[in-house]
Structures are given as C-alpha cells and as structure tokens.
Amino acid sequence: MVLPKKNTDSLIGAIAKVLEDEGIHLVDSTLFLKPLLPEVGVLTRRSPSEEESADIAYGLGIARHIASIDIGQTVVVCGQACVAVEAMEGTDAAIARAAGIAAGKPLVVVKVSKPKQDMRFDVPVIGLPTIAAMKSAGATALAIDAQRTLLFDREALIAAANDANIAIQAFSPFIVGEPIGTSPGREKK
After folding, report:
1. What's the confidence (pLDDT) of residue 88?
2. 110 close to 59: Cβ distance less than 8 angstroms
3. Crossing angle of helices 128-137/154-163, nearest 10°?
4. How far is CA 71 from CA 75, 148, 158, in A?
5. Which of 81, 169, 170, 187 sits at a 20 to 30 Å CA gap from 146?
C-alpha cells in the first residue's frame, strides 16, 4: 500500500482500512476507559492563575490549529509566546525542549485532540512521566481536552501534579471547527 502522506492520520487510516477489509470492526479504544477521561473543569487543588489562564487561552488556539493539520497535539507556552510545538518526538520531549529555550521561566503545556480524532487508535494521553517532565521543565499548568484525553493512573497523576503545584484543567474539545460547550474563558472553577 502506497500512502500519499506519511502523517499519523494516513498511517492509522491505512491500518484501519486493512482491518475493516478483513471484516474486523474497530471500536473507540476508550469504550471501557471512560473513568480515565476527565470531565470539563479543574482537576487539581489549584486552578490556573490569571497568567497561566492567558497562556492556556493562547496555547489552545495554536494547539488546535496544529492538531487540525496533523502536525502535533501539544504546545508549550511562556508569556503568551509559543516556545515549543510537538511533532513526532512526543509531548514529554517537546516539554524538555521548551525548558531549554525558556531558561527557567514558567511554562504552560497545552495538549488537545484533533478535530476528527480517531479514538480507535490515536488517543491523547497524559501520564506520570508527563507530570515529571513538566516538573523538571518548570511547567506550572496543563490544559487538556475533556473526554478526549486519557489520564493514566489518574489518582497518582493528580496527586503528583498537586505535589508539584501544577494546575490541570480540562476544557471542552474542539470538534469539526467549533468548540463544544463553554469556551476557555468561561470554564467553571
């Protein structure tokens, strides 16, 4: 099979087509993992500060754009400037790269789903290594898409974020060009 593009969507789509051609019906991989998908709202003891909220709002626009064109799903922001954009290296490596650029300034990490995220295979994930990478990089807040980001070992992840004084907030996901529910500036605290 020759693929016109070698991005995530093309590769995953090709695998899905081969399986479906063989009669294998694929389902949403989060079907039995709903407790690992957060609802909209602040997940940690601490809400993002006013400065962090401004970086989150800025970062959501950039992250949603790069996700819509299948470049990556994470951006790292500092003072409403995009310091790093995730590509093939993954979220934790993008955070580490941003730390080297920001030179000790506090960072905000924004991770989103694609507008047409294929939840059968490619689900955004945050785990304990991401919190460790954020702590090491001096990142103080994390924004994620509610109901479309898996939080592995959720209780330990939230506890680690609380211990590191990292705020985590889940926002309504970006679906087919429009945010669902509330906008970033109107989330419940």
Report:
1. 85
2. yes
3. 10
4. 11, 18, 28
5. 81
110: its two tokens? 């924004």
pLDDT band per the 50, 70, 90 thresholds, residue 59: very high
- Pair 76, 60: CB distance under 8 Å: no
SS3 99: helix
Domains of the chain and any CATH numbers: 29-186 (3.40.140.80)
* Residue for token pair 């290594």: 129
CA distances, 61 to each of 15, 16, 22, 146 (Å): 30, 29, 39, 16
Q: Which residues contact 150 (CB under 8 A, 6 or more apart)?
A: 30, 33, 36, 37, 123, 124, 125, 126
Alpha carbons 134 and 121: distance in angstroms, whole number = 25
Q: Which long-range contacts (CB under 8 A, 24 or more apart) does 6-15 make?
A: 7/70, 8/70, 8/122, 9/70, 9/114, 9/118, 12/118, 12/120, 12/121, 12/122, 13/118, 15/121
Question: What single letter denotes the amino acid at residue 24?
Answer: I
How many Å is the Cα radius of gyration of the chain?
16
